[in-house]
Write a structure and sequence with these properties.
This protein has one domain. About 70% of the residues lie in helices and about 0% in strands. It has helices at about 10-35, 40-50, 50-60, 65-80, 90-115, 120-135, 145-165. The longest helix is centred in the middle third of the chain and has 28 residues, at about 90-115.
Amino acid sequence: MDSTTPDAAPTLNAQLDRKITIVNFDLHRLQDDLNDSISATHFASAMLKFLPDIQRLALLPTGPRHAFDLVLKLGGNLNSHGGLDSGDPEDLASRRDFYGKLDTAMVEVVGRRFGEGEEWAVQREIKRIEKTASYLRTFGVEPYFPATLDLMRREIEFQGTNSGAALAGQTNGNGAPNGQGTPPRYH
């Protein structure tokens, strides 16, 4: 795929989204056909195979926005897999490991997304992730995207502090509050 075309990110996103949906559907159908549960380890393993392509998507212009949604979709697919109520320690450990890998990938995606400077309802996305985290916590699965949430909260704080100081006229000329130099961007 030519990554220089304007439609490269939407095209790759559509392809990945479709493939993820098909694999998720096939795994659920197989589970139904077996009349038995596929382990969270196997399910997560199948979903993790998409991370390298999602990370490639995040490198394209406008790609981070799409990559963000796809990483959350991978997490949601495992959430819909079932088996949370079993309390199986191996299952819970597999889920924690899977969500940890997604969190690591998402931090890079979020950093790139902030770097693009797009208009983004970050607070809404934080609440979306927190809602899922709260649900999973009731089953003993935590944390859920802790580094991602931390990065997003710090960026909101940075943007709020920076815009507040600018409104008060207390900046050093580059948008940073006086005496603080150039503020960090956390990515």
